[in-house]
Amino acid sequence: MFEVKNEIDFTAAHEGLLIGLFDKPEKFSGILEKLDEKFEGQLTELVKAGDISAKFKNISKVHSFGKIAAKRIWFVGLGKEKEFNFERLSEALGKAYKAIKGSKLQECAVLLDSLTADSVDGLEAAHAVSETYALASYQFRGYKQKSNEPEKRVEKITVYSEKNDLEDIKASLTVGLAFGNGTNSARTLVNIPGNLLTAKDMAEYAQQLAAKYDFEVEILDKEEIEKLGMGAFLAVNQGSTEPPKMIVLKYQGKEQWQDVIGLVGKGITFDTGGYSIKTKAGIVGMKTDMGGAAAVLGAMEIIGELKPEQNVVSVIPSTDNMISGNAFKPDDVITSMSGKTIEVLNTDAEGRLVLADAVTYAKHHGAEYLIDVATLTGGVITALGLHTTGAMTNHETLYEQVLEASMEAGEPMWQLPLFEKDKERVRNSKVADLNNSPGSEGHAIVAGAFIGEFTEGTPWVHLDIAGTSTTSREHDLGPAGATGVMTRTLALFVERFEPIEK
Ligand code: BES
Ligand code: ZN
Ligand code: ZN
After folding, report:
1. Could you tell which of 270, 376, 437 is best to mutate to test the pocket of ligand 1, judged by most ligand atoms within 8 Å of the CB?
2. Lowest-confidence region among 6-10, 274-278, 319-323
3. What pTM value is reported for the model?
């Protein structure tokens, strides 16, 4: 897929040569200067005349007229060097790959050194080159009889860099590709409809991951879930003909099973709302209610590829939320694995119920730090919109590490508060310890507060991705549909994690 070379070869007959350009290049320097010499200064002229634009994300295609063996040069505008960062590089590269793909190129070369600045070094740029390649060329094939042939895409990329060690670049390209592929796997899981991805299917997928990467795997079936007393998880499954699965994957990268990170993902394969049924407009798209589980599985794939020195247990409660004579109902009182009783006020607030038992079970498996990811509330969309994941925490230091990973991954998040008054609203029930829906004010916050009740002092960050897990529009880093959001943040967080002194 990727070939890396230290010396740029202007005699190589690449179909395309991709070059990054910062705004206001007074004069080409370095490798671009050499290239311009081949063109007898005409590239500089084209920049001056505005035919080649360095404006952020502008793509300028220039024929080489035989001055070099590569047929065409694709200049991608990187904007102002001062504003440049990894996220902007990824977006610009995504746009460039899409343009290149549109021109049906099957091979191209990239001048890596042209994509670097003080804020992004060669190795980070190499990561962006491969990650963005995977993300931008992602396609969900769907199920049409016709036209489900995969689109032609670039199959080989030569990366030229004079400034970096070849082996280092290769390693960064491998890491970037793992991040891109893991995210794409998460996207595919989310894009698959509920009839084709049941809890059983998700468990089988996890088993395949475990076999590939040598993870320890545990799939709890309904009987085992009953034995463990996971009454909150079971209540959500009660109306379904599909049995629930509690999916556990363990990755041990340290000698001792300590400093264990617990990743918990909401795995509702379809959310009808149950008896608190959704509207006919609101129910469409609810196949994506396992976006949290997908992010966790995507991150586990990256972890399996890169094998960081960390310990991770991931826990995914998976079921659909259906209606039938057996289904749970508003007013029901259920008992969670932790022993806490819950008054059900809204069967559509099912995510927090399955996550309650999953959090307890992650602790049972030794998780000392918890991150849960869930398409949990429409409220987070009202609060933060469609581009920002909502975060809540009981531990600021842990949150800082998650936030840092999210910024580096280009997956923005924003913290919402968990004040005592909102915790009290969750604890307000005449008949049980907790209620699952204390009213519509601050939906996202009370949902987070509810899950927080089950962490019982374990440092924890909750990520509500209801707004960010899918997008209705094609974007620089992929098509409309699932985004695979938080896959990269989780994987990066795990890779960089530093245990917190207790
Ligand atoms: N799965 C939904 C949240 C959701 C909404 C995800 C939109 C993706 C897009 C969740 O289970 C839900 O129904 N939440 C309710 C909670 C309410 C009933 C307390 C909500 O946010 O409206
Ligand atoms: Zn729901
Ligand atoms: Zn849901």
Report:
1. 376
2. 6-10
3. 0.97
